[in-house]
UniProtKB/TrEMBL annotation:
PANTHER family, alphabetized: HYPOXIA-INDUCIBLE FACTOR 1 ALPHA INHIBITOR-RELATED, HYPOXIA-INDUCIBLE FACTOR 1-ALPHA INHIBITOR
Domain JmjC: 10-211
Pfam families: JmjC_2
Entry protein name: JmjC domain-containing protein
Record organism: Kribbella koreensis
Superkingdom, taxonomy of origin: Bacteria
Length: 270
């Protein structure tokens, strides 16, 4: 494979499972990542990505080290993630890298992203269950990005179990509850994370871009200072309400809607 494409068989298997159910692709890691990464590679990556903007390192000393968005500091991982983003039709994807030193896990949870877990070293046991057991409010809160939402128990009546060995790939669909526990002390895995695009994200991007085009909005608001007399403050508030109303009206015009659709197509749909 080249770095701008994903092996056809892997693509087909992912297409059959995407947003439907998890899938285990034995030995497919090479198709997504090329060579198998070693613990030495991880140590070198950790040193190289230290201080790179956007890369976050979370660690429990002697247990686990998690490099979030490691692909921001590694061109090849970035290219591999971009290849997956292209076939999945998402605007971007990144790689997290997880190294364990004891048989640990981070507890069962669900993510608002589609994830490909690519085992590189060691063995991990995974349990997954569909999002049906989550309440509607919880699902909305997760998509909205509310703090502290994401933990959930696996539903034992619908659980799917996989053991991931070096070279294996597991697809976890959006919002599926999952938990991975090491079977070996040492392990290394790379996750390709495809964050969800919600209708809110796409609508807001179109609206923001359209508003940016309106010259009349790029001026200071009248002051609301404490020393202003009440009448002046009230008039300023009324003028802001009027402008807001006019702008919302303008957004309903067909020229604005075409512009917003163009922005959305460019960012999220092509
Ligand atoms: Fe996760």
């Amino acid at each position: 494979m080249t770095m701008d494409s994903v092996d056809v068989t892997v693509s087909e298997k992912l297409a059959g499972a995407w947003r439907q159910h998890p899938v285990l692709l034995r030995g497919a890691a090479q198709h997504l990542l090329g060579s198998q990464r070693s613990y030495e590679w991880f140590d070198e990556l950790l040193a190289r990505t230290a201080g790179v903007p956007g890369v976050d390192v979370h660690r429990r000393d002697g247990e686990v080290t998690f490099i979030e968005q490691a692909s921001l500091g590694d061109g090849e991982l970035a290219a591999r993630a971009a290849a997956v983003a292209r076939i999945a039709g998402v605007p971007s994807a990144w790689c997290d890298v997880i190294r364990t030193y004891v048989k640990s896990g981070i507890g069962s949870h669900f993510d608002h992203s589609d994830n490909l877990v690519i085992q590189q070293q060691g063995v991990k046991s995974w349990r997954l269950s569909p999002p049906d057991s989550l309440s509607k409010d919880t699902v909305v809160a997760r998509y909205r990005g509310d703090e502290g939402v994401g933990g959930a128990e696996i539903d034992p009546s619908t659980v799917i179990e996989y053991d991931l060995e070096p070279g294996d790939v597991m697809y976890i669909p959006l919002m599926w509850i999952h938990e991975g526990v090491g079977q070996t002390d040492d392990s290394l895995s790379i996750s390709i994370v495809c964050p969800v695009v919600t209708a809110y994200t796409a609508v807001m991007a179109g609206v923001a871009a359209a508003l940016r085009q309106i010259d009349a909005l790029h001026r200071p608001l009248e002051p609301m200072a404490s020393w202003m007399e009440d009448g002046a403050r009230e008039r300023a508030e009324q003028r802001l309400a009027l402008v807001t109303g006019k702008v919302l009206e303008k957004l309903t015009e067909s020229s604005s809607q075409e512009y917003m659709a163009q922005v959305q197509r460019r960012r999220y749909l092509s």
